Amino acid sequence: MEYNNLSKLVKKVLKTDQSGNTTMPSRREMTSKIFAFIMLIPGITSIVMTVTSEGGESIFFAISASFFLGISILLFGQKSRLEFNGIEKQLNLKTALWGCFQRSKVVTSFDTLSFELSSIGAQGPYQIKFVDQLYEFKQYTDAKMFISFLYTKYNTTAVETISDWPNKTPIRFAQRELYSSPQITHDTKKANSNSHLEDVDFNSEDLVFIEIWDRKSLIKLSLPFFVFTAIAGLVKYGVL
Question: What sign does the dihedral 134-140-145-147 (CA atoms) show?
């Protein structure tokens, strides 16, 4: 399957670089972006408090603003992308900070790389797991096209747990799934009675999610905001 034949949604996740390798954002990069946005909240709040406060309070909030905004800038500049290197036949993790401190490490070779397709419900959404990453698509066709492209280009393995859960069954791709365009696939919709899955329009604007934390991590993430908000209130009213 050619890259140009991928759906718009899959292209938002999978990118090709100048070397022809496929890259995609890792869980670490998405986590950094979320943290960066969250740090903007206390940072902007501290700026407002700096303007409206006087004396020692103003200095405290100015330091807080510099701290939070500095962290936010650093996190926005952090890149952590997975690279499928066709020449070396391995999956690499490339990291950088605003284009500097570039590093690359091998995650695994294509010989041991395997994609696992699963379904949360009877009609999706559909999850793709490999190494320590998890991607979620609302539509089955987008999820399978994602796997099909990487399976064909890099000769990896792919299994699914949908038709015979919880057993892992090798995914068998039809010729039209490996080489046809989205339009052709859409025009030749067929239902798979064994896996109760249907092809749908590849041009749908459904979202793709990357799992970056569990519920406990989300709770821990929100704690600093409330803690610093409480400290700001105590300082404002002279308790501290």
Answer: positive
Residue 191: C-alpha distances to residues 22, 174, 198, 210 (Å): 30, 13, 5, 27
**Residue type for 207, please?**
L
Long-range contacts of 58-64 (CB under 8 A, 24+ apart): 60/235, 61/232, 64/228, 64/232
In order of 12, 134, 201, the CA distances from 210 in angstroms are 12, 6, 22
Q: What is the pTM of this model?
A: 0.66
d(CA 238, CA 240): 5
Where are the extended beta strands (E) located within 131-167?
Answer: 133-137, 157-160
Report the distance separating Cα 137 and Cα 30, nearest Å: 16
Residues 142 and 9: their CA atoms lie apart, in Å, by 7
Predicted confidence at residue 105, as pLDDT, reads 92
What is the full DSSP assignment across 42-92? Answer: HHHHHHHHHHH--HHHHHHHHHHHHHHHHHHHHHHTEEEEEEEETTTTEEE
pLDDT of residue 168: 87
- Reference 47, options 66, 31, 24; nearest CA is 66
**Average pLDDT per 10 consecutive residues for the chain, totaling 240 residues:** 82 87 88 87 87 83 90 90 92 91 91 90 82 86 88 88 84 62 42 38 42 52 62 58
Name the residue type at position 117. Answer: L
